[in-house]
Amino acid sequence: LRPFTAQIEEKEQILDNKVIHKELPDIYGDPNRLIQVMTNFVSNANKYSQNGATITLDASVERDKRDPNGKLLGDFLHITVADNGIGISEEDQKKMFKPYFRSTNDEAQAKPGTGLGMYLTRRLIEQHGGNVWLESDLGKGTTFHFTIPLAPEEEPASEPASD
To answer: Is pLDDT of 74 > 80?
Structure first.
């Protein structure tokens, strides 16, 4: 989050990082790619939120997550990046993770971008075995959610049998 300090201060935004005080298990993933994912989410929250807005980061563990058919997928870390910025229309939400898509919202169009950020972010998350989705209300803000599998827990070394 350090690279965003100046941008967030410039817009007098509040970064509410609820993750720093939580004990979270290890996840299974490439640290550089996951930094890229977080960078994209936080950058967009900053870019598409007005001065004084709040950006909230949170994480929680989801155990025994299942797909819609009931198949066990495993344990995941569920991360959210929420803002109270310009929001995304329902129509644009359907296209958000498509390559080269840029929102049709005039406020979003006024900001620079290629339309590749969310597409690449989705691909990185899926390559890690996770999932990504969003919730948004136009004019009220957006919450991006994503999951990353937890690293396997190491089994404690067994004690040798005594005679």
So the answer is: yes
Q: What is the DSSP letter of 2?
A: G
Give the whole-angstrom CA distance, residue 88 versus residue 107: 11
Task: Provide the 3-class DSSP secondary structure of residue 54.
Answer: strand
Most distant CA pair in the chain, distance: 77
Q: Is 12 buried (19+), middle (13-18) or exposed (0-12) by CB count in 10 A?
A: exposed
What's the pTM? 0.84
Give the span between the Cα atoms of 120 and 141, in whole angstroms: 22
100 backbone φψ class: left, alpha, beta (φ>0; ψ -120 to 50): left
Task: For residue 149, give the H/E element and its range.
Answer: strand 141-149
Q: What is the number of other CB atoms lying within 10 angstroms of the CB of residue 125?
A: 21
**In the block, which residue shows the tokens 């298990």?**
25
> How far is the C-alpha of 109 from the C-alpha of 13, rounded, in Å?
21
* 72 φ, ψ (degrees, to nearest 5): -70, 125
